[in-house]
Amino acid sequence: LFSVEILAANHNWQLVGEQARKYKPKFVVLNNKSAYEHLAGEWRDENIKLLYGMENLLKILGETPLDMVVGAMGGAIGIAPTLRALELGIDVALANKETIVAGGDLVRLAQEKRWHPLKTGQLQRQEQGTDENPRPKPGAQINRKAGGNEHGKTA
């Protein structure tokens, strides 16, 4: 299956807290100081390191072995971690269009390396699989033509 190593959010500390309790990442990063302070005030899991700020997110992206980064932060806030992941040679799956729209040419140039757009629910369907469409085996190529990648590339 998969493991979550890093969870990051801009300001939705309640949701990232729920996700952290469920997926048990090594790191949780909040970019908004107020959100960080809210979550830090109730944080009790000593096995998950809670961090604040984009600088910390970019730093741990470079220090944590990752196969893929799934970007879902809306707006311009998602550009820097997306570019950092691509710069490090990590595959990126975008669950929204805001990073492409806001990042424009910067992200388009970097996307030629490793970019896999996701449609809503696609990651969950691939993770769980179905009788008609079983979960891909490790190392299998996933055809993204029907999944929204206008370049028709495979992962």
Record field, number of beta strands: 6
The coarse overall form would be globular
Low-confidence segments, given as residue ranges, are: 122-130, 133-155
Strand order of the largest sheet: 1-2-3
Which terms summarize this structure?
155 residues, alpha/beta, 3-stranded parallel sheet, 6 helices, 6 strands, 15% strand, globular
Topology:
Layout: E1 6-9, H1 13-23, E2 27-30, H2 33-42, E3 49-52, H3 54-63, E4 68-71, H4 79-87, E5 91-94, H5 98-111, E6 115-117, H6 122-128
Parallel strand pairs: 1-2, 2-3, 4-5, 5-6
Structure description:
The chain has helices spanning 13-23, 33-42, 54-63, 79-87, 98-111, 122-128, and strands at 6-9, 27-30, 49-52, 68-71, 91-94, 115-117. The protein is globular. Residues 122-130 and 133-155 have low confidence and may be disordered. Helix 3 runs parallel beside helix 4 (79-87) and helix 4 runs parallel beside helix 5 (98-111). 24% of the residues are buried. By secondary structure, the protein is of the alpha/beta class. It contains 6 helices and 6 strands, in the order E-H-E-H-E-H-E-H-E-H-E-H. Helix content is 39%, strand content 15%.
How would you summarize this macromolecular structure in one to three sentences?
The chain is α/β, with parallel strands linked by helices and 155 residues long.
